[in-house]
Amino acid sequence: MFFNKKKQTQKVEIKLFDSITHLDNSIFDKERDSIFDRMSKVGIEGILIAGITQDKWRFIRQLAALKKNVYSAIGLHPSFLEQHSKKNIKDLELAVAVKPLWAIGEIGLDYYEEKFDRKSQIDLLSAQIQIAKSATLPAILHVRKAHEDMLIYLKALNFQEGGIVHAFNGSLQQAERYIDMGFKLSLGGAMTYPNAVKLRKLAAELPLDSIVLETNSPDMKPYNAKKAYNTPFQIFDVYNELCKLRNESASEIARVTCQNSKDVLRIDS
User: Fold this and answer.
1) Is 108 left (phi over 0), alpha (psi -120 to 50) or beta?
2) Which of 6, 18, 62, 248 has the largest count of CB atoms under 10 Å?
3) Residue 93, burial from CB neighbour count under 10 angstroms (0-12, 13-18, 19+)
4) What is the CA radius of gyration of the chain?
5) Who's near 234: CB < 8 A, 6+ residues apart?
């Protein structure tokens, strides 16, 4: 936990929001409940659990319904093309009619892995963006080596619901275009690595009101993480590193990034 000293006599407790997690992952089966129990005690204001395949949608929504300050998103991730079918798209159309739901995601484009067919990814993305648009829900975007195409498709589909660009690592110019479309840019463990020079510079330069924080648990561990996998508690490692890179006070960075997550997901404070 991070505490900001105020006049050396008062401690201000920091509250953060983990904007993208995958706590549905089976690696958390033995500790999931204890994670939920500890979150508010250490200052985690909320988490979003994002779905990547249809088989986990129900479980994710159950967790959000049963646990305080846990929010759900469901989608079909581009890196799992072989697990998706046209029926899944129809099922997603039906699923969004059942409230509450806070976003469609993770969805997107992954050009980093050549084995993923680009046309299939684009078709899958377009279908899900249309569903998000019809349901007036924000989108959680997974984008690797494909920011220009993503921006083109979002504009072509006239998507105006905004959302979160997961683990953003594009250019400042691309960031500005996402921001103009109503998106927040998510920073996670990758930013904590000393050799991530470009990303750390970007984290320092982005408008604070465009930034949200994530752990992407169990993946994307911060630098010097001791555990074999990531948990929502590493959100404080991400936050502390961002505080080192920026000029705003630690309390302001916490307050604004937390509120940014709530705003983009339309969560009432």
Assistant:
1) left
2) 18
3) middle
4) 18
5) 189, 215, 217, 221, 222, 225
Name the amino acid, one letter, at 14. I
pLDDT tens digits for range 183-224: 999 999 999 999 999 999 999 999 999 999 999 999 999 999
| Range list of H helices, the chain | 32-42, 57-66, 86-95, 118-135, 147-156, 172-180, 197-205, 235-245, 250-265
Q: For residue 268, is it left (φ>0), alpha (ψ between -120 and 50) or beta?
A: beta
Which amino acid makes up residue 129?
Answer: I
Q: 124 φ, ψ to 5°? A: -65, -45
172: left (phi over 0), alpha (psi -120 to 50) or beta: alpha
d(CA 142, CA 95): 21
Average pLDDT over residues 246-251: 97
Closest to 112 in 3D by CA, of 58, 161, 199, 170: 170
pTM of this structure: 0.94
DSSP string, 64-87: HHHSTTEEEEE---GGGGGG--HH
Q: CA 127 to CA 98: how far, in whole Å? A: 19
Report the run of H or E that residue 5 belongs to, with start and end.
strand 3-6
Extract long-range pairs of 71-74: CB within 8 Å, 24+ residues apart. 71/46, 71/47, 71/102, 71/265, 71/267, 72/48, 72/100, 72/101, 72/102, 73/48, 73/49, 73/101, 73/102, 73/103, 73/104, 73/105, 73/106, 73/140, 74/50, 74/101, 74/104, 74/105
| Residues of the chain by 3-state class (helix, strand, coil), percent to 5 | 45, 20, 35
